[in-house]
Design brief:
This protein is α+β, with helices and mostly antiparallel strands. The chain is built from four helices and four strands. The radius of gyration is 39 Å and the shape is rod-shaped.
Length: about 180
């Protein structure tokens, strides 16, 4: 009789054990789910710490890209104007009137960089065979434009960015080219 009870209780104990194990597994899942819910707030706090830094880095990269684009545009425009100044030397091309070489070069530079607003904001400096002049015109420049000499053209423009939390930041972009007069 002892064996029968034992056998029947074992038969009945098997499903009971399985049910208890299932309940135990369900309890563990429930505890894991509760722990995951409690950690979701932690992720939000970590993101709140990191987000301003990421935004500042992203915003800084965008501003640097804009400034670098303007710098490359200015360099290209000054190169075009300087080459025109060295080659043309203020010659008019048959009109008989000598032209101001610096005015032609500054106009070519302004046309090559339309997004920089060089006409109103730029500072122009010309050095023709050792004689300096500022502004977009150098009327005595044509007599100084001797073949084999050197001409240096320098253009500077102010650049201002409004940076959040830091206010307005200003700096000057400068580009210069030296050419042999043809």
């Amino acid at each position: 009789m002892d064996d029968t009870v034992m056998g029947s209780s074992e038969k009945m104990a098997g499903p009971a054990r399985r049910a208890a194990g299932a309940r135990g597994r369900t309890f563990l899942r429930l505890m894991r789910a509760r722990r995951a819910d409690a950690e979701s707030g932690q992720a939000l706090v970590e993101f709140a710490y990191v987000a301003p830094v990421l935004l500042l880095v992203t915003f800084g990269m965008c501003l640097f890209g804009i400034a670098f684009n303007k710098y490359l545009t200015l360099n290209n425009a000054v190169e075009i104007g300087g080459q025109l100044l060295a080659v043309e030397r203020g010659e008019t091309g048959g009109t008989g009137q000598p032209a101001d070489p610096c005015t032609g070069a500054s106009t070519a530079t302004e046309v090559a960089a339309p997004n920089l607003n060089l006409a109103s904001a730029a500072t122009w400096t010309y050095n023709i065979n050792g004689n300096s002049s500022t502004g977009t015109a150098c009327s005595s420049g044509q007599s100084e434009m001797v073949a084999g000499g050197y001409v240096t053209m320098t253009v500077s423009i102010p650049l201002t960015f409004n940076v959040p939390f830091l206010g307005s930041q200003s700096f000057t972009l400068t580009s210069s080219i030296e050419e042999v007069i043809q």
